[in-house]
Amino acid sequence: MQDWIRVCATSELLPGESTVAWDGDTAIVVVNHDGDYYALEDRCSHEDFELSAGCFDGEEATIECVLHGSKFDVRDGRALNPPAYAPVVKFPVKVEDGAVWTRDDRG
Ligand code: FES
Question: Which of 29, 42, 47 to mutate to test the pocket of ligand 1 (most atoms within 8 A of CB)?
């Protein structure tokens, strides 16, 4: 069982905001959608570009890859439009001690 990674204080990640955390070599983009936190691997399923370089839409709950324009649903990682078809890996999130935590749970 891997350790949880502290992302930031909840006060530092407000609705509509996103940030990046690292678990070892894994970059994780963490977003606040309407008060709920979600974490995805910061790697587009199309050509591995950093999703965090693109735009998180806090109302649509999507993040758009800046390289070729695929959007992903931040709640489950699924691809919403080509050229990406595969989902992005989703990671668990918890809120504890006033902070947001995540981890790469792929083992
Ligand atoms: S690398 Fe993200 S859409 Fe192509």
Answer: 47
Tokens 């995805």 sit at which residue?
Answer: 40
The answer to whether 48 and 89 are in contact (CB under 8 A) is no
Atom of ligand 1 nearest to the CA of 47: 1
For the chain, list the domains and their CATH numbers: 5-102 (2.102.10.10)
- What is the rounded CA–CA span in Å between residue 106 and residue 82? 26
Query: Which amino acids bring their CB within 6 angstroms of ligand 1?
Result: 44, 46-47, 49, 65, 67-68, 70, 83-84
Q: Whole-prediction pTM value?
A: 0.96
Per-residue pLDDT tens for 20-79?
999 999 999 999 999 999 999 999 999 999 999 999 999 999 999 999 999 999 999 999
